[in-house]
Write a structure and sequence with these properties.
10 strands, 2 domains, five-stranded parallel beta sheet, 40% helix, 19% strand, binds calcium ion, Rossmann fold
Amino acid sequence: MSNTKAKLLIVEDEQAILHGLIDVFVFHGYEVDAAEDGKIGLEKALTLTYDLILLDVMLPFIDGFSICNQIREKDLQQPIIMLTAKSSEQDIITGLSLGADDYISKPFSVRELVLRVECVLKRTQKNSPQNAILSIGSLRIDTANLQTIETVNPQKFTRREIEILAYLQQQHHRPVPREELLEKVWGYRRAENIETRTVDIHIAKLRRKIETDPKQPQLLLTIRGEGYRLMTDASA
Ligand code: CA
């Protein structure tokens, strides 16, 4: 039993989709706020508090990527799910690169969207930062502050990225399949068989942050047919 309703912000300019989503999430017990254009959406996202933001890409005035980017400059914890156009691989990559937790492609199944929102919220509530330092290669990452311990130009991470690194590190060099990461970090049940590029794109983004040469990873390795392996030391 949750004592308080989770609060969502839905930023979507298509009336039919917006009202459909509001009805569905209210029905599922959420408190829902809405914005029909990017300007209002950005203002609400930056000034009010939400448990999760559902963000359309194509919006009047300010697009969803720009909103995502501006939220992340201020807040690395805010859960965000982008609503992208089907078949737009580039939209998906852009959205996740800007720090969205996940995406769902239109036209989406409402059931799947509700499921993903529930999963992201559940993980977010459970995985509050462990106040620990992650040591990976020469990096020392403060998991509470979501950045490397450096006074000048610290490398910043989203909460989801920290969770991926922390989970992989706990596996002590065991390669972790994509499905397991979806289950353990995003909270998606395996049985749901969710098709998503989320994991791969997050891994690529992490490589750009932690590897000397992201094209020749020494720390975050792909083990063909097995999954992703995190080496805590490049020479190990
Ligand atoms: Ca739109």
